[in-house]
Amino acid sequence: MHETLLIPTEHWKLDDYVCQWEGATRSAVDGRVSALITEMHDPLLANFFVLWPLYPAGEVVYVRNQLVMAERLPGPFDPSRVGEVVEPRRGQRDEDGRKISEWFVSLADVEEFHLRLLGRNRTC
User: Fold this and answer.
1) Residue 24, phi then psi, degrees to nearest 5
2) pTM metric for this prediction
């Protein structure tokens, strides 16, 4: 199954996302929690950023959508430190009892995606 992901490219270009995703997928393959930045805006002007946290668990990686509100951060959002704003994976419901949207992919698929990112012609 393939889906389309629309990402803003006013602040970051596609290669910026690809470089960030390369590092995030490598971390997930190595068993560390990380996140794909899917909406990067100017950290000095933006109200929010969107992440897809990656939570490795054995042979699967759980993925969620996380909205990061700039006003809740101690300073400007630093994409090189994205792991510091990833929320822990707790339960299946939020504090209001609503089901949290979550999906999973195989660790092998994340590793394959990582290798495809490495094969792109760009400099990180």
Assistant:
1) -65, -40
2) 0.90
